[in-house]
Amino acid sequence: MRYFIIDDDNVSRSMLKSIIADRELGMVIGESDGGLKTIEQVHALGPDIVLIDLLMPEVDGIEMIRQLKEIGFQGQFVMLSQVVNKEMVGEAYRAGVEFFIHKPINRIEVENVLQRMTEKAQLMQSLVTIRDSLAHIGAVTPKTTPRSLKEIVLSVLRDMGIASENGSKDLLYIMEVLTEQPSVVSIPPLKQLYEMAARKMGVAEAELPKEVKAMEQRIRRAISAAIDHLASLGAVDYTIHEFEYYAPRFFDFQEITARMKQIQKEELPSRPAKVHIKKFLLMLYKETIEQHKNFL
Questions:
Q1: What kind of fold does domain 2-119 have according to CATH?
Q2: Where does the Response regulatory domain start and stop, copy by copy (predicted)?
Q3: 3-state secondary structure 127-184
Q4: What's the mean pLDDT in 105-121?
């Protein structure tokens, strides 16, 4: 990944460059203190990811993101901030920020966020490559090419912040199994479903019991991560589309609201969130089928 760092604090810029270099997360191709020429520099260099401070003397981070988007910049944004004002954080998300890194800078948080951003960028590039290939093969533009079931599932998982989780691959295979059935009204026994998905992955029969247990754990962790992601969005602004749409449909809303309150109070979870795997899988299946019908 190619990074551009915008921060009026030279120490913060140095720390971020050091973390990116030490952990081999990519290459910093430019940096700025947020002056008036920054927008031109970012647009000219075209980095994959911009790390941008929220509060800067000349132009604040949110306004700079808007100006970059207006001139067609396609990169992604990670915001650096000490601010916990939920209105301002909500405004940043609406402007196009993908993740926040809190100040003072924590090495582990930076590594985790940038790794997730890298995985997301790679996934997006893969989808672009697939669409381009289809366009050339069939002489059909991406706008008229129906979205595949796989693309739809990945899009939904991305909205819930878990496309880069290990369990996302399992969910893709499970959706493939379910969509091959004539009609699904309820989710079959999970063990049976996991075995069918594992066979599609090419897992040997002798390895099925072990893989089924591992798959369940990966899926459980992925759904739990989705709860945390949506609760984080709702804690900032409950009118954010992803929160409004997915939280009440896919999850026990009481679990989401309880996690929101903990986030707002900056408390650690008192217990793991209750994960209802069958409900999640059924809603993911229904959402996939519905979206696919809309593209046909």
A1: Rossmann fold (3.40.50)
A2: 2-118
A3: HHHHHHHHHHHHCCCCCCCCCCHHHHHHHHHHHCCCCCCCHHHHHHHHHHHHHCCCCC
A4: 85
